[in-house]
Amino acid sequence: MKVNIRAYQPEDDGAIQGLIADIMDKEFPQTKAAYPMDDLTHISTVYGGPGDAFFVAVDHHQIVGTVAVKHEDKRVALLRRIFVAPTHRNQKLGIGLIEKAIQFCKDNGYQELVFRTSSKMDRAIRLCQKKNFQQRASLEIGGLELLKFVLFLGNGEAKS
Q: Which keywords, in A-to-Z order, does the entry hold (predicted)?
């Protein structure tokens, strides 16, 4: 399988929304309310600023994975929207997507990459732990455990 990881293009919108909505509906219905999909209706605006990125994994013209980076401040970026289609799991695609996001963050001078998730999203948690993200916080809200993971990137002074 030759999957290409590339930057988001506006024509990807429908496929991205479909992939993420399908995974959320089937695998995480209990956490769906905690993760509104507003950002996915305006990907080019939400993830189009300086220090932001949205990447997709493409296999035979089909989007099979996503990852996004959102600027928090000059030191910190947020890792968001880590999703891999069930048909493409256990093939190191998730690791490839996270590595693409990490490299983007290093290239843009970020010192920390933060990932917030629910404890139900165990695959995403395991992927981040494989890349040395450390759990820094846990908060329970309405029976849902929210977790915060941080990867220290080791960059010196961040770009403005």
A: Transferase
Tell me the pTM.
Answer: 0.90
Pairing status of strand 4-7 against strand 62-71: unpaired
Residue with tokens 């024509």: 11
Residues facing residue 145 across a β-bridge: 140
pLDDT tens-place string over residues 106-145: 999 999 999 999 888 888 999 989 999 999 998 888 778 8
Print the SS3 string covering 62-121.
Answer: EEEEEEEEEECCCCEEEEEEEEECHHHCCCCHHHHHHHHHHHHHHHCCCCEEEEEEECCC
pLDDT in tens, 68-93: 999 999 999 999 999 999 999 999 99
- Kindly state whether residue 51 falls inside one of the protein's structural domains: yes
Q: What is the C-alpha separation between 82 and 26, in angstroms, rounded?
A: 16
Q: Flag whether 47 is in a domain.
A: yes
* Best CA proximity match to 69, nearest among 27, 36, 93, 39: 39
Into how many domains does the chain fold? 1
Q: How many CB atoms lie within 10 A of CB 138?
A: 10
> What's the CATH number where 60 sits?
3.40.630.30
Q: How far is CA 97 from the centre of its chain?
A: 8
